[in-house]
Amino acid sequence: MTKIITKKFRQVAIMAVTAVFFFQTAAAQDIVSSSNETQTNIKYKRTVVKNLQQEVARRQIVMQQKAKDMLLSLPNNEKLYDEGDVTIQTSLVETAENSGKLSYTFEISYNCKHIDGQTDDYPAGAYNYTESNACRAICTLTKQFVENDLRDIFVNGKKLLIKITSSTDATAVSGVPYKGEYGDFRYFQVFFNDQPTRISVNATEGIVNNAQLAFLRGQSVKNYLETAVDNLRGTVNNYEFYTKSYEMTGSQYRRCSIEITVEDAFSDKVKSMLATLEEEDPNVDINIPVNPSDNTNTFVLIIANDLYDTLFPYMPYVANDANIFREYCVKTLGIPERQVKLLQNVNKAKISNNGVKWLSDLMKVTRGKGKIIVYYAGYGVLDASNVPYILPSDACIPVKGALGKEPLSKKNRASLVEQGISVPELCTMLTSVQAQSVTLFLDANFNGVQRDGEYLFPPDEKKCGKSKAKKNKALRIRGDVVVFSSADFTATSYAFKEQEHGFFTYFLLKELKKTKGNLSYDDMFTNVKEAVSFESSLQGLQQIPAMTPGGKTKDTWTTMSFR
Asked: How far is CA 453 from CA 140, 461, 504, 540, in A?
């Protein structure tokens, strides 16, 4: 008697500690999940930035070569005969000022080797870009690149900062005519020799100093960009002018350069790349796709049994399977949270009264317009005719001998079957009232093998070979039901240890993540079956999912969908 009391006390103590641990873990799970997701998103962002930086570098090389080729093909009257060299610099920058968005900068400048008596730079006193072969060349190249090579960046609505730098040498300027083609300017703010200042110039008074001359060279380039470059007509352009006046004389000090920064340049591409990374990430527990909660006619019952009587060992990853499946139902399938019920470690009465009856009552009030999804993960058993039964958490039998070493006796099997709920019976219970459709997912073992491949009840060697059971032949389902099982009921369903899920559930979730829940049952099952079969076989644990349609869904299940 003392031993029995001690054993029961130990069981109660273990259950109490387990309960405390479960609630503490559950309370911390959201924090850990959120932290992991944040770290993963940072990892994704770094990957995206790195890839885009490589793309920007490749584009720069291509544009530099195109610039070289174009300079060689210029007509004689526009050639840079002073061995002109055009330089293109591009960069991708993420700054706090623009909320972490990626800005793209394109800069084009030139350098002409000075030869006495020959120049491709501005003549003294000239300000129109056409009077400098070199400036005309970079304007033409800018147009070509913006309209062609960079057209995916310079799109309508993008905000641009266009910096035009123009300079003069120390040659004195006095009485140079200004035709007023760019308008009159009064106290226009610019940077002159790196200091903010204001410049005024008009056609009546003309150009009387080098600051005005350098400023008008910049205005000429701006006029070209606004009138000749098509892509800049739909962008939001902000100009800044940087003017310089050197203390030396010479044509090499009379030049212009262009720098254009596009804010949030790769927004669409970043979204697409992030979506691809999230989709291809093997971890299905994070970055779960979110859809609107508009799937209001679907109701879900999730049953997860991983803690049984001392007869059955703990079933790994079942709780994770159920919790993450629930998240996908709410977030990805868009089912309102109140319409998804999760039952963990429940007995037969709670499965029937708190689960199946809950669904039946809802189908009555929705007048048969609702859809039912039931997911079960846990242990199961086959009866003498190979009919599968799911096992409540309190299922128990008096077992003689060591667990996992002796076959399940006829008497003990009958006892477990009596305590369980057969899959056909469960389907009948779910279709006792009219529903638009009923879908049952089973990630369970019915053949006496655990998820790790160890025997719970080894086969009876005396009976092996004498009678060969027909797989799934005993399962007969009526009504509008589709049953997806992790494997044939006489076969083993394993755990995908690396991902901490059952193989079947993991690849089901992965398919929902990849498609954001927008897929047919046919595509889902085809892809999940292929993926589970391949990955499990690769690990030496072959598992092939199975599907059994009810009598009324035999010809229609392929067109059914989650949303």
From this structure: 70, 18, 15, 11
**150-163: pLDDT as tens digits:** 999 999 999 999 99
Query: CB of 108 within 8 A of CB of 87?
Result: yes
Question: What three-state secondary structure class fits 481?
Answer: strand
Q: Is 133 exposed, middle or buried (0-12, 13-18, 19+ CB in 10 A)?
A: buried
Q: How confident is the model at residue 8 (pLDDT cuts 50, 70, 90)?
A: very low
Q: Given strand 256-262, what is the order of strands in its sheet?
A: 85-94, 102-111, 256-262, 159-168, 236-245, 185-192, 195-201
Residues 6+ apart with CB under 8 A from 49: 92, 94, 102
CA dist 325 and 345 (Å) reads: 16
Residues with Cβ within 8 Å of 365's Cβ and at least 6 positions away in sequence, in order, are none
User: Is there a contact between 448 and 404 (Cβ–Cβ < 8 Å)?
Assistant: no
Q: For residues 139 and 257, give the distance between their C-alpha atoms in angstroms, rounded to a whole number.
A: 9
Q: Tokens for 241?
A: 């002018």
Beta strands 195-201 and 85-94 are: unpaired
- What stretches of 383-507 adopt beta strand conformation (E)? 388-390, 421-422, 437-445, 481-485, 495-496, 501-502
Tell me the pTM: 0.66
Residue type present at position 330: V
Element spanning 381, H or E: strand 371-382
Amino acid at 418: E
Instruction: Measure the CA–CA gap between 226 and 246, rounded to whole angstroms.
Output: 28
Q: Are 40 and 281 a contacting pair, CB within 8 Å?
A: yes
> Rounded to an integer, what distance in angstroms lies between the CA atom of residue 275 and that of residue 330?
19
Tokens of 32: 């850990």
The amino acid sitting at 119 is: T
pLDDT digits 0-9 by tens, 353-391? 999 999 999 999 999 899 999 999 999 999 999 999 999
Do residues 276 and 268 lie in contact, with contact meaning Cβ atoms separated by under 8 Å?
no
Could you give the dihedral angle defined by the CA atoms of residues 395, 396, 397 and 401, in that order, rounded to the nearest 10 degrees? 130
Angle between helices 133-144 and 210-228 (to 10 degrees): 30
- Opening angle at CA 55, ends 51 and 56, nearest 5: 120
Q: Cβ–Cβ contacts within 10 Å for residue 23, how many?
A: 10
